[in-house]
Design goal:
heterotrimer, A mainly alpha, B mainly alpha, C alpha+beta, B: mainly alpha, 12 helices, C: 3-stranded antiparallel sheet
């Protein structure tokens, strides 16, 4: 891989994670458990959409073929999206959404922290900006996880199940593939072994405070980073891409 | 407007006047006439309090239900920039609902009670949000027409006699200043786009024009409680005055876009400088208010579902807070 | 209907350092930490603040409007507290 293609692919992957999670959070608009939470959820979704825009723009620039943020966001086939399976998972209730966000943010915050020190100035700058947002998200999702875990018997049971259901998507975050290796070696990018240790520390501490049980590491699902997604992804993209696909070439 | 249900509710001015002396009422009216603001704990006639609770809560409900028609296009917004703008706008609506509920709460009614009244169908919200958003152009039309109509009504409310309501409206108007502009910009882009996009924009105007005019509420002659609200300076302009003002400014904007307002009877009266328009279909208006609009049931079902689905979460947070408080004690 | 809504908090925002906190509005929240987050997510979306105070609304002690006259009228006629009360010839400077 060339230097440029590494950066393009890596920025695209970051953009995909942010966009897909943002899209999932948008599904909660007008459906939050309380009005104040409605505002919080929209703030976080806005942060993710904003990050996706920055990462895609960065990807487009390093690629040098004139692709815009919207070309990346709307005009790729499913297998070219390289987000984690975790972020595309649908939620059946607020507990699922909190766990999904918590497990991802605990990883993403450390990833961005490391990325803020990478050799590519553009990417480092975006990461330094985004990490502030994500730290706040992590604070929010951690606090909610504790409230739900240590709230009522019903909430404890529900959120434990969310945790058990989503746990199998966490392994993929730390599987170092060719791109991760290249980014680490050639651009002083994040070290996933190191991040995994930090992630485990954060996650087990919060889960413990929430009086929940840490799920056992069983078989882990993977494939998102290589473009092999779950069945849910096609529907998410169908909605996301609807207008761009129906009216090719139109400006909005 | 967002509180148009008031105009035909037919019961708000009938306060429990039993304990209120003529002296108190006169002193109160004197404060209003002197443009003094009334604050939460000040003495006020029961009818004034009740009118405000009803008006502010209807306004809040309209903001909350109003999130749905636009929220409908959030996952399908055509670009990331438009997605972010629309999300920020829908979020503002949640915020405005929140400010308004807070303003109503200063009058001694709980948010729980107001929400219960909305969910039971007892409380109304603006008729406009019972119309569907079928294309992306509807998002433009809502910003341009619906927010445009809302602003006509909301700016005078910043001078409303009740302090907490006036302050909430000042914050809301400040935040909303971008809403109408982003809507017009969407329309402008569509009108400068492909033939399909232009047709989409015209279709949105065709469907949203009349419902937007209905937002101002019934004609003055049919509006029962305007007089009392005007006297109390809760309301400062009549429905027809505001509607006329809206039409007068909007016609030129439609012309700029190259769109045709769907009213054959629309013509400028040179003498008065105002546009004349065809009759509004009030039967449709009253049917929508009564719950029979295209989306009333859908909007309420979604709101009820969100409320019910959130019950265990709200309960969990309460239980956790109690546990923590008990531990700290 | 759940009768136990989350308690109400009043929100005070310092818009920039050097200024005092000002009342911005209120939020509901189940606990203090949530109140702080909700205040942040509701009232500082447009970069309105650098510091937030929240306090349970039922902890605020307020003066009674019925006592407004007794509380505040007596201060109205103490005009000697204000600099304009004193007549000093124009030619006297730095005073």
């Amino acid at each position: 891989m060339t230097d440029r293609s590494i950066l393009t692919a890596y920025a695209t992957r970051l953009g995909d994670n942010a966009l897909v999670l943002g899209q999932r959070m948008i599904e909660f608009v007008a459906a939050s458990p309380e009005l104040e939470e409605e505002l919080a959820n929209a703030n976080f979704a806005l942060d993710y959409i904003g990050q996706a825009r920055m990462f895609y723009t960065c990807a487009g620039e390093s690629e040098g073929k004139g692709r815009s943020e919207d070309d990346f966001a709307f005009l790729r086939p499913e297998h070219e999206y390289r987000n984690l399976l975790l972020v595309e998972q649908p939620h059946s209730h607020f507990g699922d959404a909190i766990v999904r966000q918590f497990l991802f943010d605990a990883f993403y915050a450390h990833q961005l922290d490391a990325l803020a020190h990478c050799a590519d100035e553009g990417l480092a700058e975006i990461a330094a900006r985004a990490v502030k947002e994500v730290r706040y998200h992590l604070r929010h999702s951690s606090q909610w996880l504790v409230r739900l875990g240590d709230g009522t018997a019903e909430s404890h049971e529900r959120v434990q199940r969310s945790l058990d259901d989503l746990w199998r998507f966490t392994g993929e975050m730390f599987d170092e593939d060719e791109l991760d290796t290249a980014m680490r070696k050639d651009h002083n990018g994040p070290c996933l072994v190191f991040i995994e240790a930090e992630w485990r520390d954060t996650v087990s501490r919060v889960i413990d405070e929430a009086t929940l049980s840490l799920p056992e590491d069983g078989w882990m699902a993977s494939g998102g980073k290589q473009g092999r997604h779950s069945e849910h992804m096609g529907f998410l993209l169908a909605e996301l891409q609807y207008l761009q696909r129906t009216y090719p070439g139109a400006s909005w | 407007m967002y509180t148009q249900g008031l105009d035909q509710a037919g019961r708000d001015a009938a306060g429990a006047a039993g304990e209120e002396t003529a002296e108190q009422l006169d002193a109160f009216q004197a404060r209003i006439d002197a443009e003094e603001k009334i604050e939460a704990k000040d003495w006020m006639p029961e009818a004034y309090r009740r009118t405000l609770v009803r008006q502010i809560s209807q306004h809040a409900h309209s903001e909350i239900i109003g999130m749905q028609p636009e929220g409908n296009w959030l996952t399908r917004a055509p670009t990331l920039k438009r997605k972010a703008i629309l999300l920020a706008k829908v979020q503002d609506e949640a915020g405005h609902g929140l400010y308004l509920y807070s303003a109503a709460e200063t009058l001694g009614v709980s948010r729980d009670q107001m929400v219960a009244d909305l969910l039971s169908g007892k409380a109304k919200y603006s008729s406009i949000f019972n119309y569907p958003t079928l294309t992306w152009a509807d998002i433009g039309a809502i910003g341009w027409l619906v927010d445009g109509a809302a602003i006509m009504n909301q700016i005078p409310l910043c001078r409303c006699s009740y302090g907490p309501y006036a302050r909430a409206m000042i914050r809301i108007c400040k935040e909303e200043s971008f809403h109408q502009r982003q809507g017009f910009e969407i329309m402008l882009t569509l009108c400068g786009g492909t033939d399909e996009q232009k047709a989409m924009a015209q279709d949105a105007l065709n469907r949203f024009w009349w419902p937007s005019l209905m937002m101002f509420g019934p004609n003055d002659a049919a509006s029962k409680h305007s007089a009392q609200s005007m006297k109390w300076k809760i309301k400062r302009f009549s429905n027809d005055e505001l509607r006329q003002k809206f039409i007068d400014v909007t016609v030129a904007q439609a012309e700029f876009l190259g769109l045709t307002i769907p009213d054959d009877g629309l013509r400028l009266d040179e003498e008065s400088g105002h546009y004349e328009h065809s009759d509004i279909d009030w039967e449709e208006f009253f049917e929508v208010i009564a719950g029979n609009g295209p989306c009333n049931r859908q909007r309420m079902a979604k709101r009820r579902k969100a409320h019910d689905d959130g019950a265990w979460v709200r309960e969990a947070a309460r239980a956790y807070a109690e546990k923590k408080a008990a531990k700290a004690a | 209907m759940d009768r136990n809504e989350w308690p109400l908090y009043e929100v005070f925002i310092r818009s920039k350092s050097g200024l005092s906190h000002r009342h911005a509005g209120s939020v509901h929240a189940a606990d203090d930490e949530m109140a702080l987050s909700n205040a942040r997510d509701t009232y500082t979306r447009r970069n309105e603040g650098v510091s937030i105070w929240v306090v349970r609304s039922d902890r605020i002690i307020a003066s009674d409007p019925d006592e407004t006259a007794a509380f505040f009228d007596p201060a109205k006629d103490k005009i000697y507290r204000h600099p304009t009360f004193y007549e000093i010839p124009d030619e006297v400077e730095n005073l």
